[in-house]
Amino acid sequence: MTTPPEFATKRRLELFDALVGLFLAEGFSHLTLDEIAARLHCSKSTLYTLAGSKEQLVRSATVHFFRGATDEVETRIADIPGARERIIGYLEAVGAALAPASDRFMADLDAFPPAREVYAQNTRLAAERVHQLIDEGVAAGEFRAVHAALAADIAATMMERIQQRGVREATGLDDAHAYRELAVILTAGISK
Question: What is the rounded distance in angstroms from the CA atom of residue 165 to the CA atom of residue 173?
Fold first, then answer.
């Protein structure tokens, strides 16, 4: 009997969600494929249907996490009126999406180049989104005529420092709080 495609897709999503939850809570560098399979209540061969190696599994899980986080962030800001509120909502939502990530996960992510690059790419995309939101605010007359690319670059620089744990080391703020503070500082700086 063949597994229906909709079940396979649903099962894959459930496994990726469980995998992301495990990695966010505990990190991934110390886990073997056998341990991951046991924790997810599946076989190693099932894990191999998701990715060909542990390294690919980690990268795929990281991509899955950031896709879900991006969807969650955009959903949270979809109905927010006003550019200032949208930027604050956006950066707060980014912080909230990262809040479940344990220190162990973030350290593992930083130490594993393929996963670190996924995070860096998502940080660049988030900075581009902030740029768009600033442009919208300037066009609507909510923000003074700022150089939106510079303001977005400042945001991107801080987002990279947050990603690389520099903000935590310098200030003691976790990622979620750092994003909230960035939102307040950024929007105050460009407001009329």
Answer: 10
